[in-house]
Amino acid sequence: MAVKIRLKRMGKVRVPQYRIVVVDSRKKRDGRVIEEIGKYHPKEEPSLIDVVSDRAQYWLGVGAQPTETVQSLLSVTGDWQKFKGSAGTEGRLKHAAEKRSKLDIFNEALKEAGSESVAATTPKSSAKDEKKDEKAAPAATETPAVETPEGATEQAEVEETKALDAEKQQEPEDGAKGDADGTDAATPSS
Fold first, then answer.
1. Ramachandran bin of 98, using left for φ above 0, alpha for ψ from -120 to 50, beta for the remaining angles
2. Which of 34, 50, 88, 109 has the most other CB atoms within 10 Å of its CB?
3. Closest C-alpha to 93, from 44, 36, 55, 22
4. What are the C-alpha distances in Å from 49 to residues 21, 44, 74, 138, 166?
5. How high is the pLDDT of residue 41?
6. How far is CA 47 from CA 4, 42, 68, 123, in A?
7. What are the tens digits of pLDDT across the range 62-79?
8. H or E element in which residue 181 lies
9. Name one GO cellular component term (predicted).
């Protein structure tokens, strides 16, 4: 069986990402592989080349033939020179600069704006804390019954009943005068 080390294409349209794979030479480009030994992302700046060196050395040692592209990638990482035993095994692989964290960028923007660098993030509260706050909030912020709409209607009903009671107390006095006249206010005249 002829074994090759070649690229297996993955990724989206116009965003290729490759796996460096060991595969039988009769298989399709993206067919079943024996082993994945690395990855290559050419669109990143600089290109990401990640090879598991000891597995690449093993497969080269047992006779796997790399394609031209994979051979150039292995020479960039230094694995091809190591296999051939030549000088320059460190390779010429470039590494991307470390990205600054968003928190650092935010704090720098605050300093430029003239504000002091206070906590850039708010502490996350858990569900337990929120429940405790909800339980404590009603006890602390209870409003008198008069200020709520329900309390206002209850108070209005109480005032109305007091007014009706006052009218009933005044009616017998008025009714006594009406009886003296000989007319009954409670019974309609026919």
1. beta
2. 34
3. 44
4. 13, 10, 9, 60, 95
5. 92
6. 23, 5, 17, 38
7. 999 999 999 999 988 888
8. helix 149-181
9. ribosome
